[in-house]
Amino acid sequence: MNKKQAAKFLRVSTRAIERYVAKGKLPVRYTKDKTGRQVAIFEEAQVKKIKTELETLAHPQPAPKTPTDAKTHPAAGNGNGKVALRGGQRPAPPSVTPFADALAASLQKHLGHPQLVPIPDKLTLSLSEASGLSGFSRDFLRKAITAGTLGAAKRGKGWNIKREDLESYIKQL
User: Fold this and answer.
1) What ranges do the domains of the chain cover?
2) Interval 78-106 mean pLDDT
3) 60 near 106, Cβ under 8 Å?
4) Predicted model pTM
5) pLDDT 10s digits, 102-115
6) CA distances from 41 to 48, 57, 64, 143 (A)
7) Which CATH architecture does the domain made up of 96-172 adopt?
8) Please, are residues 150 and 166 in contact by the beta-carbon 8 Å criterion?
9) How confident is the model over 10-29, as pLDDT tens digits?
10) What residues have CB less than 8 Å from 64, skipping those under 6 apart?
């Protein structure tokens, strides 16, 4: 399958395919077409593998709950129910949901770099993050944005959605 076919199958841009190739996530073989230009050819099995990874990223399974609080996990404290911290450190805030942690971890793995702000603490979300957090598809959210029922702002080629706008939209459904 060529680059355009792979992009259409994965529902991504041809530039995204090029990034997958550059990162080594998608193996490519080059051949010459009738005019002598090089054409990228992708194995169907590899493209399907990437598709399952993208689908898993869009709908990750929630991580099992683990105790993160010194009150629920006595080993985390110093015996008196308080966590011993050094030099003015603050304990990490408890996660909003295990799902948000799983989404953040899968996005970090997929993007190849750590998030500057964890998804549970973000005030605005990209369309992909909002999709992963809400469980709605990107297309569904995009249609809601264009219909005016979900507030969002266009930033470059993508959309930024306020977390509170997403939450109020979900409550209205």
Assistant:
1) 3-53, 96-172
2) 55
3) yes
4) 0.36
5) 666 666 665 555 55
6) 14, 25, 40, 33
7) Orthogonal Bundle (1.10)
8) yes
9) 888 889 888 888 888 888 88
10) 98
Q: Which residues pair with residue 162 across a beta bridge?
A: 124
Question: Which residues is 159 bridged to in the sheet?
Answer: 154
Query: Pick from 34, 35, 29, 36: which is nearest to 3 by CA?
Result: 29
- Measure the CA–CA gap between 126 and 117, rounded to whole angstroms: 13
Instruction: Identify the residue whose tokens are 């080629």.
Output: 157
Q: Using an 8 Å Cβ cutoff, are 129 and 122 in contact?
A: yes
113-148 in b/e form (b: 16+ CB < 10 A) is eeeeebbbebebbbbbbbbbbbebebeebbebbeee
Angle of the 127-134 helix axis to the 138-147 helix axis, nearest 10: 110
In the numeric block, which tokens belong to residue 107? 């996005």
Q: What's the per-residue H, E or C state across the chain?
A: CEHHHHHHHHCCCHHHHHHHHHHCCCCCEEEECCCCCEEEECCHHHHHHHHHHHHHHHCCCCCCCCCCCCCCCHHHCCCCCCCCCCCCCCCCCCCCCHHHHHHHHHHHHHHCCCCCCCHHHCCEEEHHHHHHHHCCCHHHHHHHHHHCCCCCEEECCEEEEEHHHHHHHHHHC
Q: What Rg value do the Cα atoms of the chain yield, rounded?
A: 21
